[in-house]
Design brief:
Blueprint: H1 11-26, E1 28-39, E2 46-51, E3 56-61, H2 63-66, E4 78-88, E5 93-103, H3 106-122, E6 138-143, H4 148-160, E7 165-170, H5 178-190, E8 200-206, H6 220-227, E9 233-237, H7 245-249, E10 252-253, H8 257-264, H9 268-303, H10 307-348, H11 352-395, H12 397-402, E11 407-409, E12 427-431, E13 436-440
Parallel strand pairs: 3-5, 6-7, 6-8, 8-9, 9-10
Antiparallel strand pairs: 1-2, 1-4, 2-3, 4-5, 11-12, 12-13
């Protein structure tokens, strides 16, 4: 039943109520679709259309929110938008006011990547850090046979170190078949008995691409196969900014395939330059050594004399020593004879009887002095001993006991000083001035 014409709404009222209803009923939501008609006026706002196969909706991303969007927004991009459904009242345009923009599918992949990375890291799958042989005897390259990565690797290896033996194991590096193929290849290589981990290495590589293109290298089982590989593994996937789980699980990561080849082998040209420099240094050292030895030989040649000359010098030197020794011997004998004659003359001039008598008198006098000193010393010590005896007797407890006192001791020999320290029936020993007594305590008295 139609409402009366007097109750008809104005257009602005209708649009206002519609906007309120849309904003109240839908609230904040996520919408996924494809961008088209992206416009960026001077105001800084972004206007565009979000569409799918059957419908479209106009969208507005205002300047305050647009500056937080990191990825560029281009026509044809598949995105997810967070916003509120609303209505632009002046024109009655139904629209979506956008708060955030995210590339469709990228968020789920990044979230899955982070979850798997944390899981593998907690299990220790990223702990590999074995050094790769430098240079490797044999390099086993897992890559696409037709990709640019293998061409870059082979070109760098050929220019830097053509001696390395390169074996290409062609595997898909994109799509659902890539990870199983690489896992099987790693397992097969690790079962080869002729491969030596100390001399051979595996290079896992491919060129750059989007996150979806590189997703095979984020496979959990591939990361585990790399970690458990007996042969050391270098990973070089994508460009420098690209990081995969295979990079974390590998022993060494290179930012690009070309950088991987440069790290794996030395530069033959640099080595040749070093060898040339070392050769020149060696030549200079040899020339300098030859010059020094030649000068030394000339000096030795000048110093060299005939053996007969040396023997003649030694003979003359010995004759000189013999003459000096004979003169010294005769001089010493003459001095000894003169000294002996002097002693004989002194001995002949001495009266031995008188000197013997004088020595006897001195000895008797010394004996008398010694006897007198000993008697005086003995008397002095006797007097001192008597004085010490009197002092000792004055403080001796035996003297006190002689005046009628006694010393009481318990069975352990401890002196009893108080009656309270004894018990009735306890045996005590009494030491008197003359003798000892054994007594028994009958009673104790305080005084």
């Amino acid at each position: 039943m139609s409402s009366p014409a007097s109750k008809a709404l104005s257009v602005s009222e209708l649009n206002r109520r519609t906007r309120q209803t849309l904003e109240r009923d839908f609230g904040e939501l996520w919408v996924e679709g494809e961008l088209s008609n992206v416009s960026r006026p001077a105001s800084g706002h972004i206007y565009f259309t979000l569409k799918d196969e059957r419908a479209q909706i106009r969208c507005a991303l205002f300047r305050q929110r647009a500056r937080f969007v990191g990825a560029p927004m281009r026509d044809g991009d598949q995105v997810k938008l967070r916003g509120r459904v609303s209505l632009f009242e002046p024109r009655g345009d139904y629209q979506l006011l956008v708060d955030a923009v995210q590339a469709a599918g990228l968020g789920e992949l990044l979230a899955a990547f982070e979850r798997l990375k944390k899981q593998l890291e907690s299990e220790g799958m990223f702990a590999n850090a074995r050094p790769l042989p430098f240079p490797p005897r044999r390099l086993l390259v897992l890559s696409s046979a037709s990709g640019a990565a293998i061409r870059d690797v082979l070109a760098v290896l050929a220019a830097r170190w053509p001696l390395v033996e390169v074996t290409l194991i062609p595997v898909p590096v994109q799509g659902v078949e890539a990870a199983p193929a690489m896992i099987s290849a790693i397992a097969l290589l690790n079962r080869q008995p002729r491969l030596d981990p100390a001399r051979d290495a595996i290079l896992l590589t491919r060129g750059g691409g989007s996150l979806e293109d590189l997703w095979a290298f984020n496979n959990e089982h591939l990361a585990r196969a790399i970690f458990h590989s007996r042969l050391p593994v270098m990973s070089a996937v994508g460009h420098e900014v690209d990081v995969t789980l295979a990079d974390f699980a590998a022993d060494v990561r290179a930012p690009t395939p070309s950088a991987a080849a440069e790290r794996l082998v030395p530069d033959q040209h640099a080595l040749k330059r070093q060898l040339n420099e070392q050769q020149q240094r060696l030549r200079r050292c040899l020339e300098q050594r030859l010059q020094r030895e030649s000068q030394r030989l000339d000096n030795l040649r000048l110093r060299l004399r005939h053996p007969g000359e040396a023997l003649e010098r030694q003979r003359r030197y010995l004759e000189t020593l013999a003459l000096r020794l004979a003169r010294a011997h005769h001089q010493r004998l003459a001095e000894q004879r003169r000294h002996l004659e002097q002693l004989n003359r002194r001995l002949a001039g001495q009266d031995m009887a008188r000197r013997h008598q004088q020595a006897g008198e001195r000895l008797a006098q010394a004996r008398r002095r010694l006897q007198h000193a000993m008697e005086q010393q003995l008397a002095q010590h006797q007097r001192r001993l008597q004085g010490l005896g009197r002092e000792l007797n004055a403080v001796s407890p035996l003297a006190v006991l002689g005046r009628g006192y006694a010393i009481a001791q318990d069975e352990q020999g401890q002196v009893v000083r108080r009656a309270a320290d004894t018990q009735p029936g306890q045996l005590l020993k009494l030491r008197l001035g003359d003798g000892r007594l054994s007594v028994e305590v009958k009673r104790r008295f305080k005084r």
